[in-house]
Structures are given as structure tokens and as C-alpha cells.
Design goal:
- The protein contains twelve helices and 15 strands.
- The protein has an eight-stranded parallel beta sheet with strand order 7-6-5-4-3-2-1-8. Strands 12-11-14-15 form a four-stranded antiparallel beta sheet, covered by helices on one side. A three-stranded antiparallel beta sheet has the order 9-10-13, with no helix packed on it.
- The protein has 437 residues and is of the alpha/beta class.
- It has two domains: 343 residues, TIM Barrel; 75 residues, Sandwich (Immunoglobulin-like).
- Helix 1 packs parallel to helix 10 and helix 10 runs parallel beside helix 11.
- It is globular, with a radius of gyration of 22 Å.
- The two termini are 30 Å apart.
């Protein structure tokens, strides 16, 4: 029931998309090029944003050797989460205390990025306890902080260094209370530099479905971002710090079609990107170490394949801790989990392995499709059933094919929009999105 509600929610979000006209954002070539260069990335997590640590900021949380190991894995961009709120005065003029060790460590990351020819995204992360009642007082504080950061880092090469306004606004705070932060900080940075690309997400903790109903900002040098941890009770199971409460272990993936939520999210964001002609990347995703091994593989396979299908550059959340993609530490080619290596296409990935365990045997074309939707299957696929349905879960037809047939479906009767096909043979069930022109 919960999954169905989420699917219905996605549908209404897309309906809202249809009523939102594009801003006509042009001149995005520089932002697009920089977004593409993000390629495969890694968050330097649990370091400069982890203000609760007793030795914060930890001078050895990440080192040049860590970055070298990431580069060897094939990582080409870094996201540096920082708790700037921790060093910003609470009263005007909201001075940022740049003499704090935090800034020496940021400078180290700046140097590492240049040394290894990586993109570095400087991210304003934890802190900023925003509520409906206090947001008007916090907007000028965050904007003042960003002006000082823009002044401090204006010298950085804009083709290598990006500024991310705000990591994850509170989940339950509506957009009218969040948008003023983004706009004020964007305006504040632009008084200092127009050359640097600004990274902006959405309200509701930067969920993809929240981005899919966001009106783009009137600036032609923005890269948009979203985060994916759905289903949250699966990816965050076993962590005592998970909110709103810890989730018990034992949840598997996929379960009760909860993979459909991920497909809906990526499809909705891709549609929004195309509608508004703006670059988008996946800024955070990960699955926790307390999920069972096969379910972790299933999840990372699906997310990586969706990112690949929709051409979203990505930055994985964790390297050393709760969401690590290694069997043991230190991270290396010998310790990487095989399914993560194949899904994320890291280290000496040859390109021969299936990168989507959930969809290894099925392709559909053309996509977008206008009249006929055709399926390309591996020889061993056998007989199967196809169900066609829309974003609300309403079925538009069921079809049966034998192993000897060349499967194709006439979709002329469908209205323009996003749909899904579910293919089921004797062993597997596969769900693929497509767009009806």
C-alpha cells in the first residue's frame, strides 16, 4: 500500500511538471560541461561535516593517500561536505572564523583535487536547524556566510571547483520556506563571482521527486543535484542514528515492488532535466553495511544502471564507514565488493559484466517510442509475460510471448507520457521505464 501511494505521489508530481513552463534557461554549455566532468565521484564523508566528533575537525580524517586510492579506483570528482554553520557567528555581520583548522583542511582538499586532476565540490552540509518560525532569521546568516566563502575562494579555477549552496534542507519544511535560502545565497555569491558554477538541490532533503517539481532558478550557471536512498528503511537499516527512528535489520531488496520507487524517481528527474534544459547529477547515494549482501548488490545494481541509463554523473556517499563498498579496509582493488565494482564500473572494469543485476537480460527500443515498442532479449530468456502500466499503477494491457517470437507491442493508443513495462519469465521480473511520444 505504501509503495502504491508513493507511485501515485510520483504521478501527481509529474502532473505538476506539466503545468510548470520552462524558464528558457539558455547558455548552459559551461555548466553542462562541468557537470559531465563530475563523471564518477566520491564524498569525503564523516570528516569536515562531522562536528559531533570529539576531535573535530579531524586533521587525518582523509589524506592525500586516500585521494590517490580513489583516483586509482577511477574516481574523478570529490564532494567535500563542510559544517560552515559551526564556524559562522549567529549575530550580524555573521563573521566566518576562517582561522579555524577547518579551513586549513579545506585547503588541503583543494590541493589534492588539483594534484589528481579532479573536480572538487565544496558543500555547505550539516547545521542550519531551520524551522518554519526561524527561517527568516537564518536566511541572511547563510547568505552572509556564502558571500565570505565566495570571496575566500574566488581565486579557484571555476572549471575545477564548484560551490554547493546547501546539502539537505529539512525533510518536512515546505519549499516556500527553503527557496529563499537558495535564492539569497545564489545572489550573494553572484556579487563576487559569475564564473563559478553553483550547485543547487531541492527542498525535502534533496529528494529526486522534490527536484522534479522545482522551478529552476534564473541563472544560467547552475548545476542541479538530487540524492537517492530510497527505500530509506532498507538503505539505513541497523543504524542507531537513522531518523525519525532506527530501522530494524532484515529488510531485503527488492521487496513488494519497492524498486519501482527508484525507477519513478530517476525517470521524473530525467524528464524535469529535459523539460528545463539544465544539467543534473546524483550527489549522494549509498546502501548501508547492515543490509544483506545480495540485497546490497541488487540495490547498487539498480541505482547504477538507472544513473547510467539516464546519463547522470554520480558521487557515492561513503568510502570508509557506514556505506562503504569494500569488504575490508583499507580500500583497494583487492577488497572491493565485486557487485559494486561492476555496477559502478570502477578499477579495471572491462565493460563485459552486466552492470544491472535487476535488468541484465532485457533492452527495449526505441525509447522514446511512438508506435511500436520492441524488446531485445538474450537467447536464454524463454517465454514471458509483459504488463504495461502507467505511473499510477493502472494496467494498460498484458501480453504473452513464446521463446521463438520477436516481441513487440503496439503503443499507438497510449497518451504521451511516462510508462513502465514489467517482464516476467520463469525466474525473474524486470521493470523498465519508457516514454511515449
Amino acid at each position: 500500500m505504501q509503495t502504491k501511494r508513493l507511485v501515485v505521489w510520483a504521478f501527481f508530481l509529474l502532473l505538476l511538471l506539466g503545468t510548470t513552463k520552462t524558464q528558457g534557461v539558455l547558455g548552459q554549455s559551461v555548466a553542462y560541461e562541468r557537470a559531465e566532468r563530475l563523471n564518477k565521484g566520491q564524498n569525503l564523508s564523516n570528516w569536515l561535516e562531522a562536528y559531533w566528533q570529539t576531535n573535530y575537525p579531524n586533521p587525518t580524517g582523509y589524506t592525500r593517500q586516500h585521494i590517490a586510492a580513489m583516483h586509482t579506483a577511477g574516481i574523478r570528482s570529490l564532494r567535500l561536505p563542510v559544517s560552515f554553520e559551526y564556524v559562522t557567528d549567529e549575530q550580524p555581520p555573521y563573521t566566518v572564523h576562517t582561522d579555524n583548522l577547518l579551513f586549513a583542511l579545506i585547503d588541503s582538499a583543494i590541493i589534492w583535487a588539483a594534484d589528481f586532476d579532479m573536480i572538487l565540490l565544496i558543500d555547505n552540509h550539516h547545521g542550519w536547524e531551520v524551522t518554519v518560525s526561524n527561517y527568516q532569521q537564518l536566511v541572511p546568516r547563510m547568505a552572509a556566510m556564502w558571500k565570505q566563502m565566495a570571496q575566500r575562494y574566488a581565486y579557484l579555477d571555476p572549471n575545477r571547483y564548484l560551490f554547493e549552496i546547501w546539502n539537505e534542507p529539512p525533510l518536512l519544511i515546505p519549499e516556500p520556506y527553503i527557496r529563499p535560502f537558495y535564492q539569497a545565497c545564489l545572489d550573494s555569491v553572484r556579487t563576487v563571482t559569475n564564473e563559478h558554477s553553483i550547485v543547487i538541490g531541492a527542498h525535502a532533503a534533496n529528494l529526486g521527486l522534490a527536484l522534479a517539481i522545482t522551478t529552476p532558478y534564473p541563472d544560467n550557471n547552475i548545476i542541479y543535484t538530487f540524492h537517492t536512498y530510497e527505500p530509506y528503511n532498507f538503505t539505513h537499516q541497523g543504524f542507531p542514528w537513522a531518523e525519525p527512528f532506527p530501522f530494524p535489520t532484515g529488510t531485503v531488496f527488492p521487496l513488494n515492488n519497492n524498486d519501482t520507487l527508484l525507477v519513478n524517481t530517476f525517470t521524473s528527474v530525467a524528464n524535469w532535466r529535459q523539460t528545463h534544459n539544465v544539467p543534473v547529477f546524483l550527489g549522494e547515494f549509498g546502501v548501508g553495511v547492515y543490509a544483506d549482501a545480495q540485497s546490497r548488490c541488487n540495490w547498487i545494481g539498480l541505482v547504477a544502471a538507472l544513473a547510467n541509463q539516464f546519463n547522470f554523473p554520480w558521487i557515492y556517499w561513503d568510502w570508509l564507514y557506514d556505506f562503504s563498498w569494500f569488504e575490508t579496509l583499507p580500500p583497494s582493488a583487492d577488497n572491493v565488493l565485486t557487485c559494486f565494482k561492476e555496477a559502478l564500473q570502477v578499477y579495471d572494469f572491462s565493460g563485459n559484466a552486466d552492470i544491472m543485476p535487476n535488468l541484465p537480460d532485457v533492452k527495449l527500443y526505441p525509447n522514446p517510442a511512438q508506435n511500436i515498442l520492441t524488446f531485445q532479449l538474450c537467447e536464454r530468456f524463454g517465454s514471458f509475460e509483459v504488463t504495461l502500466y502507467n505511473l499510477t499503477g493502472q494496467t494498460s494491457g498484458t501480453f504473452y510471448f513464446s521463446a521463438a517470437e520477436q516481441p513487440a507491442i503496439n503503443i499507438q493508443h497510449l497518451q504521451k507520457g511516462f510508462y513502465f513495462v514489467r517482464l516476467q519469465n520463469e525466474i525473474h521480473t524486470y521493470t523498465l521505464p519508457f516514454f511515449k511520444q
